[in-house]
Q: What sequence folds into this?
C-alpha cells in the first residue's frame, strides 16, 4: 500500500482564499478591517519567523497586522500593561502572544490576561470551556486545522476510533475534545469519533496506536511512531515539527508509514500551513463578533 498524501499546503491555500473573500465582504458591509495584534518578546529566531509569517498571511488576507517587539528583558508587569492596552483598543480584534516567553515571565498569567473575546489562539479558560461544551467562540488553530484536513480530504471522523498521542493544552487535549463533539467545524461527520488519548505515562503506546482508524500524533519527538506501531489502512496525521540536522521532520517515520497508512500528512506541508489559516479565520470571527456586540 502507498499512502495518499494529504496536501495541507494546498488545503490551507484554498481556505486562505475563502477567508480573503470573506474579509473583503466584511469590510464592504461594516467598514471595519479585522486587525491582529502580535507581541514578540525577545529575539528567538524561530519565533521571529513564525510572527513574520503570520503578519504576511494577515496582509495577504486583507487584514491589518500590528506587531509589538519587546526586548527579552521585558518585565511581566510591562507585558501585562501592553495586553491591557490592546484589550481596550477597539481597532484590535485579535491578540497573539508568541510563545515561548522569557523565563522571568509566567506564561499562564500572560495568556490569562488576554481578553477572551480577542483570544484568537483559544487558550483562555473561558474559551476552552466553551469548546468543551460544544459551543466554541474560537476553535484552537492547530486542532481545527487537522479537522479541516480530514473533512476537506473526504475522511469522515464519525464512528471512527481516533487515537491522539500527546495531551498538551495547545494540541492534544483540544484535539481529543473536538473529535468527541457531536458536531465539528465541517458538520456531524467531522466529529462524533470514539477517542483515545495517550501520553508519556501510557504503558505500551503501540497497543493503542495499532487500534486507530485515525492516528493523530503531537509529541515533539522526531520519527517516534514507526511502521510497526500502525495497522494497515490507518489515516495518519502528523502534527510534530522537529529539527533533525538541517531537515524538518515530524513525529512519525514518514517514509516507513507511507507503506502502511492509507493517507498521511507530510512534514513540512501538512498540518503547519493550516495553523496559520485557522488563525486568520479566528481573527475574522473576532472582528465579526466585536461588530455584532458593538450595536
Ligand atoms: P508539548 O507541549 O511538549 O506536549 C507534548 C505531549 O506529548 C505531552 O502531552 C507529552 O506527555 C506527550 N509525550 C511526550 N513524549 C511522549 C512519548 N514518548 N509517548 C507519548 N506521549 C509523549 O508539545 P505540543 O505543543 O503539543 O507540540 C507537539 C509537537 O507538535 C511539537 O513537535 C510541536 O513543534 C508541534 N506543533 C506543531 C504545530 C503545527 O502548527 N503543526 C502547532 C503546535 C505544535 P506528558 O503530558 O505526559 O508530558
A:
Amino acid at each position: 500500500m502507498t499512502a495518499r498524501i494529504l496536501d495541507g499546503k494546498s488545503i490551507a491555500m484554498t481556505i486562505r482564499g475563502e477567508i480573503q473573500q470573506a474579509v473583503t465582504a466584511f469590510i464592504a458591509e461594516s467598514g471595519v478591517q479585522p486587525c491582529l495584534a502580535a507581541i514578540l518578546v525577545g529575539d528567538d529566531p524561530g519565533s521571529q519567523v513564525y510572527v513574520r509569517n503570520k503578519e504576511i498571511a494577515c496582509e495577504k488576507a486583507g487584514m491589518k497586522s500590528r506587531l509589538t517587539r519587546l526586548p527579552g528583558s521585558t518585565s511581566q508587569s510591562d507585558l501585562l500593561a501592553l495586553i491591557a492596552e490592546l484589550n481596550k483598543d477597539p481597532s484590535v480584534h485579535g491578540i497573539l502572544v508568541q510563545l515561548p516567553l522569557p523565563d522571568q515571565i509566567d506564561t499562564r498569567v500572560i495568556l490569562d490576561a488576554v481578553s477572551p473575546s480577542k483570544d484568537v489562539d483559544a487558550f483562555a479558560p473561558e474559551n476552552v470551556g466553551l469548546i468543551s461544551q460544544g459551543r466554541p467562540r474560537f476553535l484552537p488553530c492547530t486542532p481545527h486545522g487537522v479537522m479541516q484536513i480530514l473533512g476537506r480530504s473526504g475522511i469522515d471522523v464519525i464512528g471512527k476510533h481516533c487515537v491522539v498521542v500527546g495531551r498538551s493544552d495547545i494540541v492534544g487535549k483540544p484535539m481529543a475534545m473536538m473529535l468527541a463533539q457531536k458536531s465539528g467545524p465541517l458538520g456531524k461527520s467531522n466529529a462524533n469519533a470514539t477517542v483515545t488519548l495517550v501520553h508519556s505515562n501510557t504503558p505500551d503506546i503501540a497497543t493503542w496506536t495499532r487500534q486507530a482508524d485515525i492516528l493523530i500524533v503531537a509529541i515533539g519527538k522526531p520519527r517516534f511512531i514507526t511502521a510497526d506501531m500502525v495497522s494497515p489502512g490507518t489515516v495518519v496525521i502528523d502534527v510534530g515539527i522537529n529539527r533533525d540536522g538541517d531537515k524538518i521532520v515530524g513525529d512519525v517515520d514518514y517514509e516507513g508509514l507511507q507503506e502502511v497508512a492509507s493517507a498521511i500528512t507530510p512534514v513540512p506541508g501538512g498540518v503547519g500551513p493550516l495553523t496559520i489559516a485557522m488563525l486568520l479565520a479566528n481573527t475574522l470571527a473576532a472582528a465579526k463578533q466585536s461588530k455584532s456586540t458593538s450595536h
Notes: The chain has two domains: 30-115, 140-273. The chain has a mean pLDDT of 97. Residues 140-273 form a domain with the Rossmann fold fold (CATH 3.40.50.720). The pocket of NAP is lined by residues 142, 165-168, 170-172, 198-201, 205, 218-221, 239-242, 271-272, 275 (CB under 6 Å).
